[in-house]
Write a structure and sequence with these properties.
By secondary structure, the protein is an alpha+beta fold. It contains 16 helices and seven strands. It has three domains: 5-93, Integrase, DNA-binding domain (Double Stranded RNA Binding Domain, 2-Layer Sandwich); 98-193, DNA polymerase, domain 1, CATH 1.10.150; 206-392, Intergrase catalytic core (hpI Integrase, Chain A), CATH 1.10.443. Helix content is 49%, strand content 10%. A hairpin with a 5-residue loop joins strand 2 (26-30) and strand 3 (36-44). It is elongated, with a radius of gyration of 33 Å. The chain starts with a helix and ends in a 12-residue tail after the last helix.
């Protein structure tokens, strides 16, 4: 039987699956659901086999016959069309584009390894995908990575250029492990030519602390942001901990804020909860924030979504919108300010490091997790009083507070 286009158009599904043949091994399989698929039957080494030709009507009768003839030639050459078709699909699966593998890397490694993989995703989507995303992963060279990294460096962002290079290197490390790339082109981009990330040492001096707080409280930014920036300076915690904070973490009777380990910075599985001892000033600020938060569980609920906290960059944007007559600084520099001034005024390194939630690594860290609760309470109350004295230009006792 030889089929015609008219016969094909008049085919309808039935309660049972059936097939109509066109001859020379080509037939159309019709299912009860209405789908129609072309197949080619043949024998290989005495065994009956079949290979899919394609769906009808996407594959027309004419094209199905052409494919049948191609497969018939393969059979005549001793090849199995089904095996050849499987082989033809392998290169696509084994040779993903950089974008395809980047998505896989982020899903299987980035999200599982990094506590906050936001920057890793950003390096992929903002820098690597637009430039190289449609290229095959294994075809990317060191020159290609340089073409992405060097313009970032030349634009005055060597630290960001280094981060993008390192994201690419980690991605290719995983690709090599999965045998999807023979080399790591990012590893061949020497870091010494990108530039070294400059270690920040910015901290605010007494007059700058006064200007910072005066400008903040005289500005028109949200009251919550004013208090939050002040709290970061006085506690001194990371802004991410404050943005994620919920009211069930606070015990105002004891003057303590216990930050759960899942909110702490570090690799997954290596975090520890952290207690912040509240000075009288900071406790008062949190009481005000609680009134401003209303019924929200979050200390800093979003303006339009009280069931979620403010965005991660909300405090940064608030600070960027203020004008100071001093050298630029970041929110993280507020933590450094507290650390530096406490050290300059004789407080012991162990107390300061614990207040900053810096955990020592290795076996030494296991045996040095003393809380120094009493000392830290006194230290943070002194710091809050000291900052108050700077703003009002009154005097607070300055001296040796524990350094041997």
């Amino acid at each position: 039987m030889v089929l015609t286009d008219r016969q094909l158009k008049n085919l309808h599904p039935s309660l049972k699956r059936y097939a109509v043949a066109d001859g020379k091994g080509l037939f159309l399989d019709v299912t009860p659901s209405g789908s129609m698929t072309w197949f080619f039957r043949y024998s290989q080494n005495g065994r009956p086999e079949k290979v899919t030709v394609g769906r009808y009507p996407e594959i027309s009768l004419k094209r199905a016959r052409e494919k049948r003839n191609e497969y018939a030639v393969q059979v005549a050459e001793g090849k199995s069309p089904a095996d050849e078709r499987r082989k033809s699909k392998l290169p696509a699966a084994a040779a993903p584009t950089l974008r395809e593998f980047g998505d896989r890397y982020y899903r299987e490694q980035g999200e599982k390894t990094w506590k906050d993989p936001t920057n890793e995703r950003r390096n992929l989507e903002k820098y690597l995908f637009p430039a190289l995303g449609d290229r095959q992963l294994k075809e990317i060279t060191a020159l290609d990575i340089q073409s992405v990294v060097y313009p970032i460096r030349d634009g005055g962002q060597p630290a960001q250029a280094m981060k993008v290079r390192n994201t690419a290197k980690r991605m290719y490390d995983y690709a090599i492990e999965l045998h999807l790339s023979p080399i790591n082109p990012a590893a061949m981009v020497a870091t010494r030519y990108i530039g070294k990330a400059v270690r920040r040492s910015r901290h605010l001096k007494a007059g700058e602390i006064r200007e910072f707080l005066q400008v903040v409280y005289r500005s028109n930014i949200r009251r919550q942001f004013k208090l939050a920036l002040h709290i970061v300076l006085l506690t001194p915690i990371r802004k991410s901990m404050l943005l994620q904070a919920t009211w069930d973490e606070f015990d105002f009777d004891c003057g303590e804020w216990t930050i759960p380990k899942e909110h702490m910075k570090g690799r997954k599985g290596e975090e520890h909860e952290h207690v912040v001892y509240l000075s009288k000033q900071v406790a008062a600020m949190f009481h005000e924030l609680k009134a401003l938060a209303g019924n929200s569980q979050f200390v800093l609920p979003g303006r339009n979504t009280p069931k979620k906290p403010f965005a991660k960059n909300a405090l940064n944007k608030a600070l960027e919108g203020l004008t100071f007559e001093m050298e630029p600084f970041t929110i993280h520099d507020l933590r450094r300010t507290a650390s530096t001034e406490l050290a300059n005024n004789g407080f012991r390194d162990e107390w300061i490091e614990k207040a900053l939630s810096h955990e020592k690594e290795g076996i030494k860290g296991v045996y040095s997790r003393a809380e120094y609760a009493k000392q830290r309470k006194q230290m943070l109350q002194w710091w809050a009083d000291y900052v108050d004295s700077i703003v009002t230009e009154s005097k607070v006792i300055v001296g040796n507070f524990g350094r041997s």
